[in-house]
Design brief:
Blueprint: E1 2-6, H1 12-27, H2 33-45, E2 51-57, E3 60-72, E4 77-87, H3 96-110, E5 114-118, H4 126-134
Parallel strand pairs: 4-5
Antiparallel strand pairs: 1-2, 2-3, 3-4
Helix pairs in contact: 1-2
């Protein structure tokens, strides 16, 4: 049975591994492990940056996601950003992401200060877009632009 729980420091090595796999699978990027580790450690050290949640079966972490925050002055509330979603390949198409997504949505519904959920996805990741659309999300409203140093 899959359990959804907030990640702890003991999950860090697994989460680093998952994020390296995610970056390579989705964008063909090799992340520097030390930089990634420090970046993820910073999240555990400072809750204002966000938090990780994991899906676990029999003590084995099989999936994860990161929540970060955006304040909306237009709506006077906090929007959660769903990021860094990863499910082990052997657990894909078994409802793990559906359970993680349901957990996020229920958390938002239960907290009156939270007003919604957003995410971004690489335009070439058709499989992810299909999954998100099947969950009732749409990508019709905004396009995300970036400049990265």
């Amino acid at each position: 049975m899959i359990q959804i729980r907030k990640a702890t420091h003991k999950d860090l090595a697994t989460l680093v591994d998952f994020q390296q796999k995610l970056a390579y699978e989705t964008e063909n990027i090799q992340l520097d492990r030390e930089t990634l580790y420090k970046g993820m450690q910073a999240i555990f050290d400072d809750a204002a940056k966000g938090f990780y949640t994991v899906a676990e079966e029999d003590g084995v972490v099989v999936g994860c996601y990161l929540i970060t925050y955006e304040w909306s002055e237009w709506r006077n509330g906090m929007v959660w950003w769903l990021q860094s979603v990863y499910v082990l390949e052997s657990y894909r198409k078994k409802g793990v992401f559906r359970m993680m997504y349901a957990h996020v949505i229920q958390s938002i519904k239960n907290d009156t200060s939270l007003i919604g959920l957003r995410l971004y996805v690489d335009k070439s990741n058709a499989r992810a877009m299909q999954v998100y659309e099947s969950m009732g999300m749409n990508g019709e409203h905004y396009t995300v632009y970036e400049w990265m140093k």
